[in-house]
Amino acid sequence: MTQVLDRPVELKKTPASPAERTARRKALLEWVAIHSLGIAGALFFTLPFVFVFLTSLMSDSQALSRDLIPHTWEWGNYQRVFDTPGFLTWWRNTLVYAGLGTVLTVVSSVPVAYALAKFRFRGRNLSLMLVISMMMLPPQVVIIPMYLFWAKQLGLSGTLWPLIVPMAFGDAFSIFLLRQFLMTIPNEYVDAAKVDGCGDLRTLLKVVVPMAKPGIAAVALFQFFYAWNDYFGPQIYASENQNAWTLSYGLESFKGMHHTDWNLTMAATVLVMAPVILVFFFAQKAFVEGVTLTGVKG
């Protein structure tokens, strides 16, 4: 009786050739190089925020030292900032300026961008060139006549309305960005809606706007960031009325009052930056998608 034993077949590994070893070594070095550059870039942009945050939690004496880590975590610094007279008013004014200005900009820019992207009319290219030329016009060039109009003629000096009301008439950069995004939407969708009996306005609201949400989100974020960080406009129109100051302008005054209290200055800076960072964190997907697709078709 013959007993057959099943033995696993031993496969001898073929040694890698010099070309394969070179390819593996090259791939490993590329992986290390790419991730090292990514980590270095992340640290380059992150470390300043970490430094500001850690300094905001230091005591008054430690903030003037070379220490990088707080000995005691002074969370009460944020409460001291909020207790500063006028800080909550600056916060409210900034929310009104950024929020209302963003809504007005989007509502007024979408129809203009839709007309430039989908309508065929005489002078369309000239209109687009005028929009682009307005993007190249520095605001400092027209600030004197604009100030004379809003402050002297309408008496709105000391308020934020000279900054909010013009946003209801569109923004050149927002119109151009939306127009580029709307060009990526196939005309067949617009034609099909019109065949079904939709007018231009209904086609815009029911067909184009839902498909253009990433572009609209990108424009809204750009405008919100601009209004939230705007320093030049409030300095021109609202500097004489402290109740109309925004956070960007009020932070300069706060720094002047607490020029040696770096912990409080950094705490106020964190409170000013936090909303912008949170908004971008939750909307970054739509923002990146909108910005990316605006250059697909010209």
From TrEMBL:
BP term (GO), one: transmembrane transport
Residue ranges of every copy of the ABC transmembrane type-1 domain listed in the record: 91-283
Keywords assigned by UniProt, alphabetized: Cell membrane, Membrane, Transmembrane, Transmembrane helix, Transport
One cellular component term from this protein's GO annotations in UniProt: plasma membrane
Membrane topology: Multi-pass membrane protein
Major subcellular location class: membrane
Membrane-traversing stretches: 31-54, 95-116, 128-148, 160-178, 262-283
Subcellular localization(s) per the UniProt record: Cell membrane
Pfam family, one: BPD_transp_1
Gene3D superfamilies found in the cross-reference section: MetI-like
PROSITE patterns for the chain: ABC_TM1
Cross-referenced InterPro entries: MetI-like, MetI-like_sf
Family membership: Belongs to the binding-protein-dependent transport system permease family.
Name under which the protein is recorded: Sugar ABC transporter permease
